[in-house]
Amino acid sequence: xxxxxxxDGPAAAxxxxxxxxxxxxxxxxxxxxxxxxxxxxxxLLNGEDPxxxxxxxxxxxxxxxALRTPEVAQAASQVAVLPEVRAALxxxxxxxxxxxxxxxLDGRDIGTVICPAAEAKLFVTASAEVxxxxxxxxxxxxGLEVDYDTVLADVRARDARDMxxxxxxxxxxxxxxxxxxxxxAIADAVAAAIAAVEARR
Length: 201
Ligand code: CDP
Prior knowledge:
By secondary structure, the chain is of the alpha/beta class. The protein contains ten helices and five strands, in the order βαβαααααβαβααβα. The chain has helices at 15-26, 34-45, 50-56, 64-67, 70-79, 83-97, 110-114, 128-141, 148-164, 186-198, and strands at 4-8, 29-32, 103-107, 120-125, 177-180. The protein has a five-stranded parallel β-sheet with strand order 2-3-1-4-5, sandwiched between helices. The structure holds cytidine-5'-diphosphate.
């Protein structure tokens, strides 16, 4: 059985949480594609060439803990504008999407560029303030020193870069179900996502 669920949306909209819950519900594999760009961003911060890093990236080595920092997020969105970086990551993502047993991929361009023929597509969004509040709490819980206004500015800068880039900009696919989680509890957002996927099964 091959079935791809594409989940896109802006920074800190809750894509990851929803993608993990949807994957667990259907028994599908899950790929957080943001980690690929974060890993390349990490190489940029180390002074390495991002294109070479993307071409040599071993997805088995993605260390989520080390990559979920605001500094790496900004570097990720900088390398994500480079067409050669994006091109180097396409085959791995498409292979994952069509694996036997079903797959959930979350990112920015899954429903538009990576898997335009995905069986189900969701676009998860929320207001910038709500997203910044959630990310602020998440980072504070990890013990990172952050303040809300800086997190909000980071989220806005990243959204602007992700939406305005020429290559694979962040935009909802025409056939995606939009889930606005601004005023939704996580359980309700997950239930809405599962219902949208069920409707395509
Ligand atoms: O978790 P959060 O939403 O904050 O970010 P992420 O999904 O880990 O993505 C980090 C950055 O990688 C984004 O701001 C994008 O610039 C880039 N990205 C992308 O261009 N395409 C994807 N499919 C996934 C991430």
